[in-house]
Design goal:
With 422 residues, the protein is an alpha/beta fold. The protein has eleven helices and ten strands. It has a seven-stranded parallel beta sheet, sandwiched between helices. The longest helix has 34 residues. It is found in: Cell membrane.
């Protein structure tokens, strides 16, 4: 046809198409500006004095929460009834996503006088606590792994007199673990370490294990500085946690060794800060450990009958295992899996050994015929096949003729003659 509908179609749609493209570009630019404005900044690690409030907010769901999908478990448990001790720099109870009774008063063991620890100058402990138990809040897709768990802050480190970041000694960590146990914690997160074995620290870990309290510790960030064995992570009853990035690759700083139990997100992860409603981004095994502590809280809430040792074993057995001999020095038993940790049925926990189901044996191949009548039976069967086939054909023709020509004695005789001929 000579009307050229193609050119007419292009003429009519040219202006709307341009507007559409322009609108898409403008929308993309606006989205980019919004993203730039809302993307959380990296958590300062070398600041002097108290950490300033975060000024940006994570509006989407951070990658770590996307991968662990803790909300799939929340219809079963959100960690209610479980207290998680955060042995750290304190936790700010006024941070919006940690407010509403989520943070107890706690105890400051770094200062004399039994002061509470529900504030936080440095921000490290608040960031850790947010990964464990931050509650949902409008305007952000970030929330903690166990949002109904309680946080027991134990401050065992404070900012030094010159304003430098705090450094924990083994004695302070030991005192913090004991205080968390005495304060009613069923899970303890300690995102600190030392590379020197210490008797006080070892005794504190045994103190926790003897009272059925599970200790989760960061493996440390010294993989590129000699990769030493670290404590309390390497004590047998402790869950030692390393860090992976969003692709599942081990973080280059993450400690390795036979003592490693699990890995969890620890590169560019999101959490809250003190004195503000926004978010920070942090990297380190310090921030991988609380993901595991949060999952442990979910398990302890849903399986209160399990001991701390059984919870540790459950988290290891239900992890997303790497393709390696377990435990792997870089990944331990694998990446913690919240859904599997809560819902998997482990027969060993019940103390009942289930019956072993074995498959039925495959049928044996046919052997040689036995002497005797076997050959005669086989021959008779072979001869009967064509006879039965012929009989079936004749019966088919007989009944077909009866249907198409109506049944009469004459037709029966005719069919009979054909049978004799055939």
């Amino acid at each position: 046809m000579s009307e050229k509908p193609g050119r007419g179609y292009r003429r009519r749609s040219a202006v709307p198409a341009c507007l559409l493209v322009a609108g898409m570009v403008w929308t993309t630019l606006l989205a980019g500006v919004a993203t730039a404005q809302q993307a959380p900044a990296p958590l300062p690690t070398e600041q002097k004095g108290c950490l300033q409030p975060p000024t940006s907010t994570e509006t989407g769901v951070p990658w770590a929460q996307q991968q662990l999908t803790p909300e799939r478990v929340w219809p079963l448990t959100k960690g209610a009834g479980v207290t998680v001790g955060v042995v750290d720099t304190g936790v700010d109870a006024k941070t919006p996503q940690l407010s509403g009774g989520r943070v107890q008063r706690g105890l400051d063991v770094a200062s004399p006088g039994g002061k509470p620890a529900d504030d936080d100058c440095f921000g490290h402990g608040t960031f850790v606590a947010g990964i464990i138990a931050a509650g949902p809040r409008p305007g952000t897709g970030f929330s903690g792994i166990a949002p109904e768990a309680k946080i027991l802050p134990i401050r065992c480190a404070t900012v030094t007199q010159d304003g430098a970041p705090p450094a924990l000694t083994a004695v302070e960590m030991a005192n913090g673990i004991r205080a968390a146990v005495d304060g009613g914690a069923r899970v303890i997160n300690i995102s600190a370490s030392t590379d020197a074995p210490d008797q006080d620290l070892a005794d504190a870990v045994r103190y926790a294990a003897g009272r059925d309290v599970l200790v989760v510790a960061s493996a440390a960030n010294s993989a590129q500085q000699g990769d030493p064995v670290t404590y309390p992570a390497s004590y047998p009853s402790v869950i030692a946690v390393g860090a992976v990035d969003s692709t599942g690759k081990k973080a280059d700083f993450s400690q390795t060794g036979k003592f490693l139990s699990l890995v969890a997100p620890g590169v560019g992860v999101t959490s809250v800060g003190p004195r503000g409603a926004g978010h920070w981004l942090g990297s380190g095994t310090s921030y991988a450990a609380p993901f595991v502590a949060g999952v442990a809280a979910l398990v302890r809430a849903y399986h209160p009958e399990l001991t701390a040792e059984q919870v540790k074993r459950r988290l290891e057995l239900t992890a997303d295992h790497p393709a390696a001999t377990l435990p792997d020095p870089g990944f331990g038993w694998g990446t913690v899996n919240a859904m599997a940790a809560v819902t998997t049925v482990l027969p060993a926990e019940s103390g009942v050994t289930l019956p072993v189901v074995t498959a039925e044996p495959a049928p044996l191949p046919p052997g040689k015929p036995a002497p005797g009548n076997g050959s005669l039976v086989a021959l008779s069967a072979a001869l009967s096949v064509p006879v039965l086939a012929l009989l079936g054909l004749l019966l088919y023709k007989l009944f077909r003729g009866a249907r198409t020509r109506r049944w009469t004695p004459a037709r029966v005789a005719e069919v009979t003659r054909r049978s004799e001929v055939g």
